[in-house]
Amino acid sequence: MNDLQVIWTAVCVALVFFMQAGFAFLEAGAARAKNSVNVMMKNYMDMCLGAVIFWAVGYGLMYGDSLGGWIGSSLFFPEELSSSKAVHLAYQTMFAATAATIVSGAVAERIHFTTYLLFSAAVSGIIYPVFGSWVWNDNGWLKQLGFIDFAGSTAVHSIGGWCALAGIIVLGPRLGRYSRQGEIREIPGHNLSLVVLGAFILWMGWFGFNGGSIGNFATDNLGMILFNTHLGGSAGALGAFLFMTVRKQSILLSTTVNASIAGLVSITAGVAHFSPLAAVIVGFAGGIFYCIGVDFLDRLQLDDVVGAVSVHGIAGIWGTLAVALFPHDAFSFKALLVQCLGVASCFLWTFPLAFIIFKLLDKVLGIRASTLHEQRGLDYTEHYEVGYPEFQKRLDSNEA
Amino acid sequence: MLTMDVKKRRRQAAWACFESYLSEEELIQAIEILERDFQVDGAINVIAYVAKICMELGIDLQDHKSLCSKFDELMSEKTAPMINDPLSLVHRKKRVEPAKKLLQPESIVVDEIPSAEPKETPITPAAYNLVFISFTTSVLEYTPDQKELFIMLADLVTDKKLKSQDLAEFIGQWANTPNSFTWSEELSQQTLTRLVHLIYMGLCEVLGPVAADDCFHKALAICERKPEARLFSPSQFL
């Protein structure tokens, strides 16, 4: 890494860090007012806890000397770091925090804060870095096979998406989200402006997320990466817009915003390899896949508050496969198989492990907040403070 | 004019209801309470008023239901009860009392201690009970299909995971007579809180969580305007 790359990566560290604010706003806005503090706290604390854990063990598992291409075995608790190594560690720490925080929105409004944090520690310390070592460690077995995931459609986003899926299955839906007759009840978020602001921040951070993953300025076209990123996000929103229009549905802001994020997720795996036209097609389809995914999960009565499984899991699959479907050179069936293998191995590693961890946490500590806590809101029951005290009453008050 | 007549009828009905239970001084006190806090329409108001008088003036709570029925009967009778407007007695008392106080200043202490004590001590349990009645009545008013709600509540109390089987008896009684709350009179604040939560769960299942929150907020707003809410905030049930 030359000096210019170090500086650029350092800028990207800040941009990807700022994505945490984007996630926090988007998720808090999509939750009810009585749970907004809890959502913010989860986003804040999973980043803090994840940073320490990733530095301690995650980085070593991911980038340490690889044991047979499966797991890193050195670089734990790194102390002596050159400038380029340190900035790489910082950048990867932000990636780990991103993978972890995706879960937060899906399980919002009904999970205990402490058990969420414990799960988040497992994502940053084990689930994400082990799979990351397969993909991004020089000796990782998927990398050796030629698997391409430029900035982490699978390695970051799908990991978060499958963890979220495990979480919502173990937790169950929010009280009354689905009637006993199978009717789906919408639970609107308390502040759509926050959702949009969060999406804008995420989009801005994505330039650092994709742009910071370049190997070097000589071989990778930074400008094209940034532009493709923007095209992918834009096309995602347009895809959802078209989908809703054709199906004669209401044109929902929340759906459009999430679809643009799905477009960004889709573009992430092949952003350095796609032409602008391919970027538009991939992002556009990502937005549509998001809409289909949300409907599908609702039919299964899987309550995903922010649509994280569809945005990050399903769009992540599509983006990773699209690398082989829209190749820079000639289409290769083998490349498509390798991409499929990468997607499948991500699911097979992440989902069962996350499911077991959630089940264990449920058995030992209990992950689901009681229905009474759901009624009162987790802001009050988990943190003893409320997000909007001017119009929210503290329950311990005797003032009528 | 009509309003004045209804108020007068209410005073007469109250007097006739409590005549066999209370002394004249207590009856005047009951009329004062009626005038101060309960001169409004609605069945819930009658229930709340009778409950308050029973608790404050020491009438057995088992008589609450029959007193409410009697009150309703008296209010609906075509001819007025054959008694004068009790308000005249209240006014006469007010005129006499200052004179008595001027003559016997030391009697102020003797008069006020006994009337102050029963007011302070039992008022809190009475208040939370009244607030519960008021709150749940308002919730029912905002529930489009009460029958469906009661079916859901009956279903929820049998759910072993919720550990609410002990509430089944009360839910059953309430479902049979939705406007009568005699079953709730001796329940603790904790039990009433559990019942409120069960109602919330039932509403979530029947109407969805958004409508359930809306229903609770509206009921809370109404309840907070009631005089008893000054003694016990309905938000403590939430």
Describe the structure.
- The complex is a heterodimer of chains A (400) and B (238).
- With 400 residues, chain A is mainly alpha-helical.
- Chain A has one domain: Ammonium transporter fold (Orthogonal Bundle).
- Helix content of chain A is 69%, strand content 0%.
- In chain A, α1 (3-30) runs antiparallel to α7, α2 packs across α3 (83-106) and α7 runs parallel beside α9 (253-268).
- The longest helix of chain A has 32 residues, at 333-364.
- Chain A is globular.
- Chain B is mainly alpha-helical.
- Chain B folds into 2 domains: 4-76; 125-237.
- Helices cover 69% and strands 0% of the residues of chain B.
- Chain B has helices at 2-18, 24-37, 43-57, 64-76, 87-103, 107-120, 123-141, 146-157, 168-176, 189-207, 209-224.
- In chain B, α10 packs across α11.
- The longest helix of chain B is centred in the middle third of the chain and has 19 residues, at 123-141.
- The A-B interface holds A 32, 174-177, 179-180, 185-188, 371-372, 375-376, 393, 395, 397-400 and B 162, 197, 200-201, 203-205, 207-210, 212-213, 224, 229-230, 232-236, 238.
User: What is Rg of chain A?
Assistant: 20 Å
Helix content of chain B: 55-70%
SSE pattern of chain A, N- to C-terminal: HHHHHHHHHHHHHH
- Contiguous low-pLDDT stretches of chain A (5 residues minimum) are none
Structural class by secondary-structure content of chain B: mainly alpha
The assigned CATH architecture of chain A is Orthogonal Bundle
Number of domains of chain B: 2
Enumerate the spans of chain B where pLDDT stays under 50 for 5 or more consecutive residues: 99-124
Please, how many helices of chain B?
11
Q: Which whole number gives the mean pLDDT of chain B?
A: 74
Distance between termini of chain B?
Answer: 41 Å
Tell me the number of strands of chain B.
Answer: 0
**How large is the count of helical segments of chain A?**
14
Task: Please summarize the sheet with the most strands of chain A.
Answer: none
